[in-house]
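Hi Y.,

Following your request, here is the sequence exactly as I used it, all 422 residues.
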Amino acid sequence: MQTTSPTRTPWLWVPSLYFGQAIPYVVVMYLSVIMYKDMGISNTDIAFYTSLLYLPWVIKPLWSPLVDMFGTKRGWTVTLQLALAASLGAIGATLHLPAFFVVSLGVMWVMAFASATHDISADGFYMLGLRQQQQAAYVGVRSTFYRLATLAGQGPLVILAGYLATTLGDVRQAWAIVFFVLTGLFFALFAWHQAVLPRPDADRKAGEGRNPLREFGATFASFFRKRDIWLILGFILTYRLGEAQILKLVAPFLKDPVSEGGLGLSTAQYGTAYGTVGIIALTVGGLFGGWLISRLGLKRCLWLMVCAVHLPDLVFVYLSAAQPQSLPVIGAFLALEQFGYGFGFTAMMMYMIMVCDGPYKTAHYAICTGLMALGMMVPGMWSGALQEMLGYRHFFVWTCLATLPAFVMAALVKIDPEFGKK
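Below is the corresponding structure, written out as tokens. Let me know if you'd prefer a different format.
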């Protein structure tokens, strides 16, 4: 039976834990793209190398038993936050080096592995540090603060980088300061969680009589013995095929000059239009999607959500053809696209929850998220080279065509008509 200190309300640590969980992911997946674009790295290299950084999240289920075998979830969580703080500071320190691209990418690899492992330990601690009734009550809190961190990472921090670059006249120094700010934040999170995280009795390493590696092997094998596994794999791997390619080229497209097919936004304008307005729309879309599924069930919502997540990709076809120069107009179109994505992506999350229902739901969900990351990593790796070969306008047409497999898989998957309803 787990126990927690009655004086430590989950409000003291759940919001900060999931705010901190999101920041390194945002840095690796999004901030890195904007930063390298500001520093003159080609779209091909940006897309390939930052997409490759998905790998730790793809394969994190393979080392998740180690978190059970050694130490406690609490110990892993706070130690990894200290490692993440050091990694963020190291990235800032590399940006003035002649070989900054290679060195900073190396540090980001370390940070990506630390972040993926932190996800494992933090999610495990959440289930140990809260009673079952509390876990359900606070799931909205953790989701909200995760999204707030995404908003902070793509909005205010990008705006700050743009402001500092203009003020100081040194892009590298501007981004170094942003990373040093993040370093201070993570040192603060480390100190805070060291002080306030509860110490559940159930939070201990695996017992002597158990073999976590053998248990994990059994749960891993059981996932691939699921009925209709090929449909499950096909749906998860293709659902984001178009978006996986767009995602790495949004920042380059918005920031490249009009003469090169882009929209010519400054870093600060990007932070406002996509990183702030867009993320707010994404959050609203996600909340609405969750509400609608709770009312109608996943099966009745599926086609609406598949259309919502893919059809707004046409926004980029229009923007690349018309190249509007009004920031409010650009922001409105990006908000439309992000709302559709947030709304439609809810179907994927609920589908994975449905697939993972059963005695091994935690391990199976980790496998699903790894497969989803794989579906983002591989298409993203080739997207930069493809864009430079086709140009922005034809590239975005191609990404719309790449959504067709998701429609085919949506027609084939089997979903319980009552799943998702309250």
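The chain is about 80% helix and 0% strand.

Thanks again,
Q.
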